[in-house]
Specification:
The structure holds two protein chains of two kinds.
Chain A lengths: L4 E3 L2 E4 L5 E6 L6 E7 L6 E7 L2 E5 L6 E5 L5 E5 L8 E8 L9 E2 L3 E5 L1
Parallel strand pairs in A: 2-11
Antiparallel strand pairs in A: 1-3, 3-8, 4-5, 4-9, 5-6, 7-8, 9-10, 9-11
Chain B lengths: L3 E2 L4 E5 L4 E7 L6 E7 L6 E7 L4 E4 L2 E6 L4 E6 L8 E8 L9 E2 L3 E6 L1
Classes of the chains: A mainly beta, B mainly beta.
């Protein structure tokens, strides 16, 4: 069973640039969620993708967007990067057809915006 | 609006003793609760969960208690081991919604001293 993997592990970008983060979900999981974890805080829900469509969104501006592919892998795109976007970005996969199920997280991508 | 609160930023416990981590929530729609453990440079790892139809769930050294009337849950670790030293996150979701969108607390740093 393959776990959740994210790439890259670390990234440094300049304010105003765009970034794409990638996530491969755990084998058999059809749902991917993205979370932002700022320093000293818990992860905050950005959005979720189920069967290639957005299935819920947290309180994040439209410059945060995503994609899910037929193999259930996913991308998080952030446009017009701001300094406050510096955070750990976590991807989690789960099986949406099963209620009350745990989500499994990847190791995260540490994004630094300078 | 913090719907899930972990009011203790840190906890220090002697090896072999009990660790008790607490979590409060405000949203009465939450009906599924999870605890995650996070080591530095890693993603959160699922530990244990509980549905709102139960008041206790046990898995080895870990037990989660849920008090719905008080909107409070706690994680007990007995006996505590040095390897348990990590950040512990409480999370909640509306389990009836497919996909398990999690709301996290800010985390509690547990230090187990040998």
């Amino acid at each position: 069973e393959t776990g959740v993997t994210q790439s890259p592990t670390h990234l440094i970008k300049t304010r105003g640039q765009q970034v794409t983060l990638r996530c491969s979900s755990q084998s058999g999981h059809n749902t991917v969620s993205w979370y932002q974890q700022a320093l000293g805080q818990g992860p905050q829900f950005i959005f979720q993708y189920y069967r290639e469509e957005e299935n819920g969104r947290g309180n994040f501006p439209p410059r945060f967007s995503g994609l899910q592919f037929p193999n259930y892998s996913s991308e998080l795109n952030v446009n017009a990067l701001e300094l406050d976007d510096s955070a750990l970005y976590l991807c989690a996969s789960s099986l949406a057809s099963k209620m009350n199920t745990e989500a499994f997280f990847g190791q995260g991508t540490r994004l630094t915006v300078v | 609006d913090q719907q899930v609160k972990q009011n203790s930023p840190s906890l220090s416990v002697q090896e072999g003793r009990i660790s008790i981590l607490n979590c409060d929530y405000t949203n009465s729609m939450f009906d599924y609760f999870l605890w995650y453990k996070k080591y530095p440079a890693e993603g959160p790892t699922f530990l244990i969960s509980i549905s709102s139809i139960k008041d206790k769930n046990e898995d080895g050294r870990f037990t989660v208690f849920l008090n719905k009337s008080a909107k409070h849950l706690s994680l007990h670790i007995v006996p505590s081991q040095p390897g348990d030293s990590a950040v512990y996150f409480c999370a909640a979701s509306v389990g009836r919604e497919y996909g398990n969108k999690l709301v996290f607390g800010a985390g509690t740093i547990l230090r187990v001293k040998s």
